[in-house]
Amino acid sequence: MTHLAELPDWAALLTALLLLIGSGLTLIGSLGLLRFRTFYQRIHAPTLGTTLGIGSILLASMLAFSVLELRLVLHEVLIAVFMVVTTPITLMLLARAALYRDRSEGNDEVPPTTSG
After folding, report:
1. What CA dihedral angle connects 66, 69, 75 and 77, to 10 degrees?
2. In three state form, how does the secondary structure of the chain look?
């Protein structure tokens, strides 16, 4: 990666900052899996932390390759689109499946269904 030596100082600093923020948010989201006790608590930490962390890492990659003008940032844009679309859908499907399972088993910790 000899091209990274040509990266201006301001871009290198901003890229490094975005990478640190992204990796920190991803780590915090992953640690939420260990800290929280129930499935419903555990589902939020990695979803939010990892999505924001990957977003920061993608921004860092976009910035570095845009400044160096080595290639289009199409890969990062596609990854970001897939993350924004699939993460909330996956969260919702997992939560609904868990709610259905817990309600059908008669678990008392699950909120009752609302009849409307």
Report:
1. 30
2. CHHHHHCCHHHHHHHHHHHHHHHHHHHHHHHHHHHCCCHHHHCHHHHHHHHHHHHHHHHHHHHHHHHHCCCCCHHHHHHHHHHHHHHHHHHHHHHHHHHHHHHHHCCCCCCCCCCC
Do the Cβ atoms of 26 and 55 come closer than 8 Å?
no
Section 47-65 average pLDDT: 88
Q: What is the DSSP letter of 107?
A: -
SS3 state at 45: helix
Question: How do the domains of the chain map onto residue ranges?
Answer: 8-105
Dist. CA 90–CA 93, nearest whole Å = 5
Structure tokens at 76: 């990062």
Query: What percent of the chain clears pLDDT 70, i.e. is strictly above it?
Result: 92
